[in-house]
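Propose amino acids for all 226 sites.
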């Protein structure tokens, strides 16, 4: 076998750069020869034939899947604590509105022209301490007891009567009765039901105490109160 060795005039093949240049030139020439001798037909069919490509557009949208019923929420026990979603702000407690206090009503004074109720005087004044004595609004006439009228017994009763500032009899008690056992009860009943104009002291009505003597003349069936 005889190996042919090609040399270019004026080149030294012993130089490595020269040999590399020659190899690249030979490779380029061989590839150019191969490409020029092989026909290129991208359609894969006969040469010089126009191939028609038919395209059809297909919608890629798919029909929505049938909506399935949402799963039932799990049962929550009655005593389970309430859950709160993170993306929802916590409900702020409503602030209690301050209820304005009603203004205190002014105390009535004499300068305002309003009457101020006075504290009731607990003292029952005697006749010497009064400017005006109590007076009965209607005649007080105790009836004679039947026993005294049958026996034609006369007598008298001395009473202590306590009258308030409104003219009402608060109490009546027997201090003395002659004869005893006849005239006490009718005398007390008559005076306890009586009404008086109140006694006056320093221009105002006051309580008073009075000692009264009631005489009974049962011969005529009447009694005299003094």
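Proposal:
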């Amino acid at each position: 076998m005889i190996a042919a060795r090609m040399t270019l005039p004026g080149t030294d093949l012993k130089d490595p750069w020269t040999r590399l240049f020659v190899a690249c030139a030979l490779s380029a020439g061989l590839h150019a020869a191969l490409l020029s001798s092989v026909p290129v037909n991208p359609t894969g069919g006969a040469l010089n034939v126009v191939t028609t490509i038919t395209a059809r557009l297909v919608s890629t949208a798919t029909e929505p899947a049938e909506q399935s019923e949402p799963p039932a929420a799990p049962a929550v026990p009655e005593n389970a604590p309430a859950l709160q979603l993170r993306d929802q702000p916590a409900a702020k407690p409503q602030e209690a509105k301050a209820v304005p206090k009603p203004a205190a009503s002014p105390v009535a004074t004499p300068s305002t022209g309003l009457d101020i109720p006075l504290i009731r005087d607990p003292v029952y004044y005697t006749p010497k301490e009064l400017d005006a004595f109590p007076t009965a609004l209607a005649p007080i006439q105790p009836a004679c007891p039947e026993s005294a009228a049958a026996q034609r017994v006369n007598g008298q009763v001395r009473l202590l009567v306590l009258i308030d500032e409104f003219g009402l009899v608060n109490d009546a008690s027997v201090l003395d009765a002659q004869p005893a056992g006849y005239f006490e009860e009718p005398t007390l009943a008559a005076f306890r039901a009586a009404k008086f104009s109140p006694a006056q002291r320093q221009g105002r009505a006051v309580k008073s105490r009075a000692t009264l003597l009631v005489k009974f003349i049962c011969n005529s069936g009447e009694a005299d109160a003094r």
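Residues 124-225 form a domain with the TolA/TonB C-terminal domain fold (CATH 3.30.2420.10). The radius of gyration is 70 Å.
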